[in-house]
Specification:
Shape: globular
Low-confidence stretches: none
Strand content: 15-25%
Structural class: alpha/beta
Radius of gyration: 20 Å
């Protein structure tokens, strides 16, 4: 499908469980230069029931996961249909959807994103491109991060592109190769502790700001094996549940101190992850609204200019880039870089489903 203009809906659900991000985007490509315009966009929050199911699904049996996948595919389809009808969107080339990650175990050659079953195309009566991670894992890759090829194509003017979502990840050019990797958990941990205080999240980092940094906890977190590993490397919620939270829970300190200490940990790991401490850093994801975290990143990287874009790009960048990955798949072009994931080769990943 080689054209100069594509009308796409990008769909993303992240590990921080903020909801389903949907963005109606028009892409144009001329002489291999891509431009985009985000038209309508919104985040559809999860109901309490869905939130609870997705939080504990990492422990589900295989049979329970199959049922969850069926139910979630129907739920996601209904969200997409409502979005199309609400904004009277016509002449779509495709809906490009990430689904929602439940299990991510590349070391076991396994990753599961629910909501990517073939029937989604028939329910919404649109071509659907989805399930972008599985093929990369089968090729020996981490299956993540996948956004960096979009950083290269759409945001090449920045030295570093960073997303602060459920996890932090960064991408940049090095010796004409795109390098990218997950750095640390972010909102997966922040939201866990904010919920214990009755909040969905720590608004602007106002709770963590009131806490005190616990040096012993900070040192223990900073010595985790993951931070010593070379890229490519990626994180899943299993790492938070099995490794990070048990460490934090050993410390009988106020939640405000736990949040403050983890904020310092995130900022420090970000600073350590960047090979060059100069240039500019383009920041997106919900964590960009955490003023205290941004201040601590700036503290550890005083010579780097931090750039936070408009709300549409900040909040919907992942939906935007998965839309681009879908177009590249439709065109039969590379959409996953082996330099990023560690796969055997660059490849064009994802499944294409047509309505029956």
């Amino acid at each position: 499908m080689f054209k100069e203009k594509y009308t796409i809906i990008g769909v993303m659900s992240g590990t921080s469980l903020d909801g389903v991000d949907l963005a109606h985007i028009v892409f144009t490509v001329k002489n291999n230069k891509w431009d985009f315009q985000i038209l309508e966009s919104e985040t559809v929050s999860y109901s309490i029931d869905w939130l609870n199911k997705l939080k504990i699904a990492v422990d589900f049996s295989e049979v329970a996961l199959e049922k969850l996948n069926q139910d979630y595919t129907q739920h996601l389809a209904s969200i997409i249909l409502s979005f199309i009808e609400k904004y009277d969107i016509k002449n779509l080339d495709a809906v490009c959807s990430h689904g929602h990650t439940i299990l991510h175990q590349p070391q076991n050659e396994f990753t599961l994103q629910i909501g990517n079953l073939p029937e989604i195309a028939s329910v919404i009566n649109q071509t659907v491109v989805c399930d972008f991670r599985v093929q990369d894992v089968q090729l020996g890759g981490q299956g993540a991060p996948l956004v960096p090829i979009g950083d290269r194509i759409l945001f090449s003017e920045y030295d570093y592109c960073m997303n602060l979502g459920g996890f932090s990840n960064v991408s940049f050019e090095k010796n004409k190769e795109r390098i990218a990797f997950d750095i640390s958990p972010v909102n997966t941990v922040f939201n866990f502790y904010a919920s214990q205080l009755g909040f969905d999240y720590d608004d602007k980092g106002s709770i963590s700001r009131t806490g005190i940094c616990n040096k012993d906890l900070l040192n223990e977190l900073n010595t985790l094996d993951f931070y010593q590993k070379k890229h490519p490397k990626s994180l899943g919620f299993e790492f938070v549940k099995e490794t990070v939270l048990p460490i934090i829970e050993k410390y009988s300190i106020p939640i405000e101190d736990k949040l403050h200490t983890f904020t310092e940990h995130v900022a420090l790991q970000i600073a350590l992850a960047l090979p060059n401490k100069n240039g500019n850093l383009f920041i997106t994801g919900g964590g960009a609204y955490n003023d205290f975290l941004i201040e601590r990143i700036h503290h550890h990287l005083p010579k780097i200019k931090l750039i936070i874009p408009s709300a549409k790009i900040l909040e919907f960048k992942e939906a935007l880039i998965f839309a681009l990955l879908g177009i590249l798949k439709l065109r039969g072009e590379i959409n996953v870089l082996s330099s990023v994931t560690g796969a055997k080769t660059d490849h064009s990943s994802g499944m294409i489903y047509s309505p029956k």
